[in-house]
Amino acid sequence: MESTNLFRGYGKVNPHLEDQSPHHQYTSSKRRILIFSVSSILLLTLIIGLALAALIHESNSESEESLFLSSSNPAESIKTVCDMTQYPSSCFSSISSLNSPAKPDPEVIFKLSLQVSISDLKNLSSFLISFNDVSSQAAVKDCVSQFDDSLSKLNDSLSAMEVGPGEKMLTLEKVKDIQTWVSAAMTDQDTCIDGLEEMGSKFLDEIKAKIERSKEFLSISLAIIAKMQALLEKFDLKLH
């Protein structure tokens, strides 16, 4: 009986030893590589999916913002433009007080800012003409002349934006010209202040306060036209 059992057991291989065969090791290694590869692909797919979702969300947000700005919300459009200036509150209140179109864009808002500057400068010129200060009469006269020159430059800027059907209100060339004209108008006001200071006008502080207010409006116009391209992009528009 013992010999029979020995005979039956002869030639059998330990299952644990069989698992350690080279073929089995190769199969296990191959399986691990396959699992790792599939996991990597799934992880990479997830990362790409999340990145695409973020890009789509950002694109949709920008499109919604552009649509919102260019739709029926003139106050928000004016605020967006004015936030690009050094005096956002003054910009918003002065432009909002005008009769703006139902759907203002940066070009229209800039045009309105020019109208504010022109109106204020006209009032300033009339204010100076009313003065009877003999000691500063020559300086005041020079100021009025300089303000006339400033008004001419601002009116040239408005005229450049008056276009016919199908024509572009602003081009790159027009933007450069208008920047030059508005900057020159601000220089005229600085020259006026210098002249009044030299003459020792007793009304200098009063006049200077009004000129600084006028310069503030010009600064607003200058900031808007200087950043026109970036502003147009916010409204999903382009500089022609």
Automatic annotation (TrEMBL):
The chain crosses the membrane at residues 33-56. Signal peptide: none annotated. Residues 1-24 are annotated as: Disordered. Keywords: Disulfide bond, Glycoprotein, Membrane, Signal, Transmembrane, Transmembrane helix. Its EC number is 3.1.1.11. Residues 73-224 form the Pectinesterase inhibitor domain. GO terms for molecular function: enzyme inhibitor activity; pectinesterase activity. InterPro entries: Invertase/methylesterase_inhib (IPR035513), Pectinesterase_inhib_dom (IPR006501), PME_Inhibitor (IPR051955). Belongs to the PMEI family. PANTHER family: PECTINESTERASE 1-LIKE (PTHR31080:SF303), PECTINESTERASE INHIBITOR-LIKE (PTHR31080). This is pectinesterase. It comes from Salix brachista. The lineage of its organism: Eukaryota, Viridiplantae, Streptophyta, Embryophyta, Tracheophyta.
